[in-house]
Design a protein that fits this description.
alpha+beta, Quinone Oxidoreductase, Chain A, domain 1, Rossmann fold, 2 domains, 11 strands, ADH-like_N, Enoyl reductase (ER) domain-containing protein, oxidoreductase activity, Zinc-ADH_QOR/CCCR, signal
Length: about 220
C-alpha cells in the first residue's frame, strides 16, 4: 500500500479486521465468501504477520475446501490457501532474522491454522523465506509448496545422491518443473516426460538432460 491505500490498510489493521475469502461449510468454490470484517489472526510469539501481495493455488486448497481440514461453521469460519508472498507487517517477540518491511514468501499450515486467501496471515517465521528479488509477487507465490514437496521427496524419501538418475513424470507440471531444477542442483541426471513439443522444450529449458515424449513409441 502507499499513500491513501497505506492509511486504509492500517485502519483495517488497527481495528483488527481484514478482507478474506471465508468458508463456513465444505463444498464447491461457491462456498467461498468474500468479507471485509474477518478478524486478523492472533499472533504467537514465533509468528510474523504478513500482508499478502499474491497467493498461489494448489490442489490441496480445493481438497481442504471440500473436506480435508478442520470442519468450518458460522461460529468457526475457515480460510483456505497455502502459498503466498507478501510484506512483513508485525513480528512476534521470539522472531529472529525478520523485520517489518521484509519481502517474504511461505507455505502456511491450513490444517491447523487459517490459510492465506486473506489480506493478512500469521505464520511461524521458521517456515518463511525471503522472496527472491528476481521474482514478481505472483511468481513467488507459486513456489513454496511445490519446492518443499520436491525437496522432501528427493532428500528425505528417496535420499538421492549426486550422479544418480531421476525420472520426472510430467516434467512440465508445477511439481515436475521444480523437481527438474532441484535435481540438476543436486547433481543428478534428470530424465523428464512430456506430451507436447512446447512442454518438451520447457523441460529442456529447465535443465532436463533427456525428455521422453510419451505420445510417441519408446522403441524405434
Amino acid at each position: 500500500c502507499s499513500g491513501f491505500l497505506r492509511v486504509f490498510c492500517y485502519f483495517f489493521l488497527l481495528r483488527g479486521r481484514m478482507k478474506a475469502w471465508k468458508i463456513t461449510e465444505f463444498g464447491s468454490v461457491d462456498v467461498m465468501k468474500l468479507v471485509d470484517d474477518f478478524p486478523i489472526p492472533e499472533m504467537k510469539p514465533s509468528d510474523i504477520l504478513v500482508k499478502n501481495k499474491a497467493v498461489g493455488s494448489n490442489p490441496i486448497d480445493y481438497k481442504a475446501r471440500s473436506g480435508a481440514t478442520v470442519v468450518p461453521s458460522e461460529e468457526n469460519p475457515r480460510i483456505v490457501g497455502w502459498d503466498a508472498a507478501g510484506v512483513v507487517e508485525q513480528v512476534g517477540s521470539e522472531v529472529v532474522g525478520f523485520n517489518v518491511g521484509d519481502e517474504v514468501y511461505y507455505a502456511g499450515d491450513i490444517m491447523r491454522r487459517l490459510g492465506c486467501y486473506a489480506e493478512f496471515t500469521a505464520v511461524d517465521y521458521r517456515i518463511v523465506g525471503r522472496k527472491p528479488k528476481s521474482l514478481s509477487w505472483s511468481d513467488a507465490s507459486t513456489i513454496p509448496l511445490v519446492a518443499i514437496t520436491a525437496w522432501e521427496t528427493m532428500k528425505e524419501d528417496m535420499v538421492v545422491e549426486e550422479g544418480s538418475e531421476l525420472l520426472v513424470i510430467n516434467g512440465a507440471g508445477g511439481l515436475g518443473s521444480m523437481a527438474i531444477q532441484l535435481g540438476k542442483q543436486l547433481g543428478l541426471t534428470v530424465i523428464a516426460t512430456a506430451s507436447r513439443q512446447e512442454t518438451v522444450e520447457w523441460c529442456k529449458k529447465l535443465g532436463a538432460d533427456h525428455v521422453i515424449t510419451h505420445r510417441e513409441p519408446l522403441a524405434p
